[in-house]
Structures are given as C-alpha cells and as structure tokens.
C-alpha cells in the first residue's frame, strides 16, 4: 500500500466536512465553503542581477467574503503551490470568524526560495507580483500581510507599488508594515504573543500551572521566535527549539535571547549554534521530545500519522497553519492530548492586523499597551467561545473552533441573502 501524499487543501476539506456534519450544516452551505470564491495564478518575470530573466509563479486566493473584505498573508517559499494557498485562504476565513473580526479570508504566495535571491531581486519580484494581483487587492477589497519569509519590509514595498498605481499613499492596502509608514506597534510580535496567551489559558483550564511546564517550539521565525522569547521572559522553561536546519535542546532551559541574537545574522542556522550544555537534535526529535507543551511554529504537515503516537507533550498549541494532518488528529484525540487549533492559537497576528487597518482608516496610532490589552481581550473571548462550543458538542477544540467559525460565516451569508444561502 503506497503512502498517501499530503495535500493541505484536501486536509482542510476533510476537517470542514467533519465539522459541517457535527453541526448539521446544509449541504449547500458546506459545498459553498469548500471552494474559494476566486483564484488567481500569475507569472512574475524578474530581471536577475546577472542580466538573465526568470519567471516565477505566484498566487492569490480569495476564499470567502461573507463577513467582510478578504484578509491574509503572503508567503514566499520554494514549495508554495495553488492547493497550499487555497487551504491557507480557507483557514483565514475560519480564523477571522473565530476571533470575530469583520474579514473574510485570502492568502497569497510565490513559489520561490527567497534565500537564493539578492535584496534587489526580491524587491523587483515583490513589485511585479503586486502589479499582477493589483486588481484584486485594496483596503476595502483584500488586504495582504506577512507570512512565511515575508515581513514588514516586503509589506512596505507592496504598499509603495500599490500607492504608485493609485497616485496617492494607501497605507491600508497591507498590514504588518513598518510602524513609520502606518504599521501598528505590536503587530510584528502579535502572532507569537497570541500563542502564549492561548497556551497559558489552556494550561490553566487543564489545571496545569503554566510556570511549571516545559515548552518545545518548532520554527524560530517571526511566530516561533517571538513565542519562545515571551515564554522565556515570563520565566518559563523552553527546553527545545528548531529551524529548517534542525534543533537544539537543554533540559534546564535554553538561553532564548542568545539563540535569537545568533539567528539575527541571516546567514546563520541552528545547526551551527554551539553552547555548553546544549545538544543538537533533529526536527523529528523535537516534535517527539519529552515536554509538556509542544508549539509547532513552522509549516504544515509536521504532526502526522507517523509520529503522532510518539508525541509526549500533553498540550499542542498550533502556532503554524495546518501543522497537524487529519489522521494525526484522530490519534492525538484518542491519546487525550489537547490540541489548540491554528485558527484560534495563531489568530493574534490577524487581530492586530485588524487594529492596524482600523488605525489606518482613522489616521490614528495607538499605544503598545492599548494594542496588547485589546489583543488579549479578543483572544480570550475567542478561546471562551471555542471552549464552550466544544463542551456543548462534546468535541475537540479543533471541531469547536470550526463550528464557531462556520456558524458565524453562514449566518452572515444568510443575512446577506447571499450565495451561501442558496436554499
Ligand atoms: N507571520 C504571521 O503573522 C503569521 C504566521 N503564521 C504561520 O506561522 C508559521 C510560521 O510563520 P512565520 O514565523 O511568519 O515564518 P518565518 O519565515 O518568520 O519563520 C519560519 C520558521 O520556520 C523554520 N522552518 C522552515 N522550514 C522548516 C522545517 N521544515 N522544519 C522546521 N522548521 C522550519 C524557519 O527556519 C523559520 O525559523 C507559518 O505556518 C505561518 O503560516 C500564522 C499566523 C500569522
Ligand atoms: O495578519 C494578517 O492579515 C494575516 C496573517 C496570516 O497570514 C495568518 O494568520 O495566517
């Protein structure tokens, strides 16, 4: 029997189907939610520094707009593909509904290994991609943001390109921008911060003292790096972290600021990090290491039917989008491992993106305390809603989150008399 190849879109549909069934959703509504409303594939010709021309493939997928403008990040990765972006776009619709912010869901991506491009090549790639997706985006239409291998600087280039075409500055076309050009203070840390807020709340609910637990984090980028840093600053024991090259472990607790300082040199990777008492482990070993809380914060399909039975953590907080394959979900549920799903756990980023967009519309700049307090309030309310739904329906937190999201999206669709209520 051959091994089934993982397809993130099929995984998303399978989870959606389970939740729809549990909720008794009308077939019409389920069918409507399965498919994106709009998909765009673009070619992006880029003049490379050596004078040659390379053509890259890019995507923007808009999944659902029943609750508001489309919203979601842009990813640069060598394995980015249409089905991945389709899944990520749907997860954005569900995520925005779970935290109850007035957006639909979208996602974008370019199939490119950005580490192989110079800064000038990356600027040209980003500007050309922006012109290609320009008819679809805008502050009232679809608002991109950072995701894997993109950041505030890339958002600044997108905003500039869009503004050049409009003939005036349009800060609200993207979120996650540098603060100096209309970004929100606190957005860069918001996803990681939201993950720690949710992790703490979940541990308290389970009667586990957050301060006494050990934490392992896969991925040391924007999300994983920030989550690890906040946990460390709160005095919690982060015993293992990793990046694309592998991981490091120290049972007494890693020196996270030292690791982040080491990784701030972009040419460095964790495989080269040396410190007394710190041992090297593989990503697979990180996922199955003895810890209380596992935080996957890298890519999809990390927890699979192959390793789910070996996971030793009691709680998994999904900081990445789609880190757990559906087959693994069943194994984890049987083993009574609590999984806080991505569409709740990593929603802090889009919540502060929403705050940024609101600030742009009002030409205001909030204080950091205000942003962080509002973020905490929204995340805890969402946790509460999901937890209540999962108790009411005797289901996992993932099913609870999907049911909250589906209810809100389909209600909006029905109230609009729109395409989601064809019956
Ligand atoms: N940036 C944001 O605000 C948000 C990001 N996310 C999700 O969080 C995850 C991480 O995103 P970012 O931190 O923004 O990306 P990033 O590009 O800043 O960092 C990605 C990290 O993952 C590591 N990595 C890459 N491939 C890996 C592999 N095969 N095994 C282990 N580690 C690997 C990289 O070395 C890096 O440390 C993604 O799933 C993303 O969709 C979710 C919500 C918001
Ligand atoms: O901040 C945003 O708008 C979206 C971030 C994102 O792509 C995500 O939550 O996966």
UniProtKB/TrEMBL annotation:
Q: Does the keyword NAD apply?
A: yes
SMART domains under this entry?
ELFV_dehydrog
Give any Pfam family that matches. Answer: ELFV_dehydrog_N
Residue numbers binding substrate: 71, 95, 353
Recorded hits in CDD domains, A to Z, give: NAD_bind_1_Glu_DH
UniProt keyword terms in alphabetical order:
NAD, Nucleotide-binding, Oxidoreductase
Identify which residues the record assigns to the active site: 107 (proton donor)
| GO terms assigned for molecular function | glutamate dehydrogenase (NAD+) activity; nucleotide binding
State the Gene Ontology BP annotations.
Answer: L-glutamate catabolic process
Family membership: Belongs to the Glu/Leu/Phe/Val dehydrogenases family.
| Name of this protein | Glutamate dehydrogenase
- UniProt source species: Mediterraneibacter hominis
């Amino acid at each position: 029997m051959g091994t089934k190849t993982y397809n993130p879109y099929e995984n998303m549909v399978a989870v959606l189907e389970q939740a729809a069934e549990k909720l008794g959703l009308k077939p019409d509504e389920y069918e409507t939610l399965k498919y994106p409303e709009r998909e765009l594939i673009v070619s992006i010709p880029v003049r490379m520094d050596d004078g040659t021309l390379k053509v890259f493939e890019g995507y923007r997928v808009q999944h659902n707009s029943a609750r508001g403008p489309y919203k979601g990040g842009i990813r640069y990765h060598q394995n980015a593909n249409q089905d991945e972006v389709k899944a990520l776009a749907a997860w954005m619709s569900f995520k925005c509904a779970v935290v109850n912010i007035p957006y639909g869901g979208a996602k974008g991506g370019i199939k490119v290994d950005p580490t192989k491009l110079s800064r000038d090549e990356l600027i040209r790639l980003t500007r050309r991609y922006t012109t290609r997706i320009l008819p679809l985006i805008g502050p009232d239409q679809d608002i991109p943001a950072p995701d894997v291998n993109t950041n505030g600087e890339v958002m600044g280039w997108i905003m500039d390109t869009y503004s050049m075409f409009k003939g005036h500055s349009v800060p609200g076309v993207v979120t996650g921008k540098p603060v100096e050009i209309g970004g929100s203070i606190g957005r860069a840390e918001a996803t990681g911060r939201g993950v720690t807020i949710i992790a703490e709340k979940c541990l308290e609910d389970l009667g586990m003292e957050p301060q006494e637990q050990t934490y392992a984090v896969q991925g040391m980028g924007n999300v994983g790096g920030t989550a690890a840093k906040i946990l460390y600053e709160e005095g919690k024991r982060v015993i293992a972290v990793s990046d694309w090259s592998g991981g490091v472990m120290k049972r007494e607790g890693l020196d996270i600021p030292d690791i982040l300082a080491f990784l701030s040199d972009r040419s460095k990777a964790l495989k080269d990090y040396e410190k007394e008492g710190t041992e090297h482990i593989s990503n697979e070993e990180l996922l199955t290491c003895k810890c209380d809380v596992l935080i996957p914060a890298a890519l999809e399909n990390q927890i699979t039917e192959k390793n789910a039975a070996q996971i030793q953590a009691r709680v998994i907080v999904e900081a990445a989008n789609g880190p757990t394959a559906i087959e693994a979900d069943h194994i984890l549920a049987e083993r009574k491992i609590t999984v806080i799903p991505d569409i709740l756990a990593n929603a802090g980023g889009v919540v502060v993106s929403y705050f940024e967009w609101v600030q742009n519309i009002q030409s205001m700049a909030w204080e950091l305390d205000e942003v962080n307090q509002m973020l905490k309030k929204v995340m805890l309310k969402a946790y509460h809603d999901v937890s209540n739904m999962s108790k009411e329906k005797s289901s996992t937190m993932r099913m609870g989150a999907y049911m909250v999201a589906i209810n809100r999206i389909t209600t909006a669709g029905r109230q609009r008399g729109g395409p989601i209520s064809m019956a």
